[in-house]
Amino acid sequence: MVTAKVRAVDGADQPFQAMTIERRDLDTQDVLIEIKFAGICHSDIHTARGEWGPVNYPLVPGHEIAGIVTAVGSEVTKYKIGDRVGVGCMVDSCRECANCKKGEEQYCHKGNVPTYAGVDKYGQPTQGGYASHIVVTEDFVLGIPDNISLEHAAPLLCAGITTYSPLRTWNAGPGKKVAVVGLGGLGHMAVKIAHAMGSEVTVLSQSLSKKDDGLKFGADHYYATSNPETFQNLAGTFDLIINTVSAKIDIDAYISLLALDGTIVNVGAPAEPLSLNVFSLISQRRSFAGSMIGGIRETQEMLDFCAEHNIVPEIEIISADQIDEAYERVLASDVRYRFVIDTSTL
């Protein structure tokens, strides 16, 4: 086994502590990765603080992982020692159900194995990327293109694919009007990707404080949702709305902004339920949908797309000692736009 240095929490209200854990011995198709950088996702915070249900502590969060292959199992064919690789939000699935066979492992009927806070096929709890090393089966490892640095690649493994997948699924592209709700870690990636796909992009944010950034990232328009006139003036405008915020919002108000046959897709996951008036949908044959990351094939496609279009997240690199502070800053929307842990500081 490999002993990994980690940062873990031992309870919902506990600070991060330096610990060590044992990673499993390499199976024949496993890859050992020395983690170089790990992004901080809002999901990490929800999970670490027990907001999405019971958690088996201690917990090592982190599903935005970038590093270097340092060992491979005897049957590994996809990667070799020295390769630049990433790991996202899942590390396995049943591989047998209809969704897995379609390359949609994130929707595995038996439940995919999350990178942390899950249980693997060996019956062991999974621990994530706030760590020096991780062992993952090769089929759930991604190749990082040469022109994307490891620190910038890490957030693409969640924030990138979480926004790329619905944009691709609902056919964002030339002639489509796409709105992005929120300009945070997810939102700024949605803007960059939708722009690269050729869509006309609008940011809908509480205020205009990030307007300059939004326009720099590729938005064509930027509106403050705190202004009631925004909802009046933009009624019936958008083909697609990507809602990236992890907080309760007035869904009916945003549905009113959709054109005929338009769709609003939730990728943010608030802890509390959302409600809507079904007449908001019926009146213009609108749809309210959800989307959760992407399959391994689509995630690799996203990485290659970002490499081709020179898309990278805006990041702030922090040390392991700053994780608790970073969590509070994420909750206060005080990050532009993704924290990335330099795991050499573990």
Automatic annotation (TrEMBL):
Record-linked InterPro entries: ADH-like_C, ADH-like_N, ADH_Zn_CS, CAD-like, ER, GroES-like_sf, NAD(P)-bd_dom_sf
Keywords assigned by UniProt, alphabetized: Metal-binding, Oxidoreductase, Zinc
Gene3D superfamilies, alphabetized: Medium-chain alcohol dehydrogenases, catalytic domain, NAD(P)-binding Rossmann-like Domain
UniProt protein name: Alcohol dehydrogenase
UniProt domain Enoyl reductase (ER): residue ranges: 11-341
Oxidoreductase among keywords: yes
Organism: Paenibacillus bovis
Pfam family, one: ADH_N
Cofactors required: Zn(2+)
An annotated Gene Ontology molecular function: zinc ion binding
Family of this protein: Belongs to the zinc-containing alcohol dehydrogenase family.
SMART domains: PKS_ER
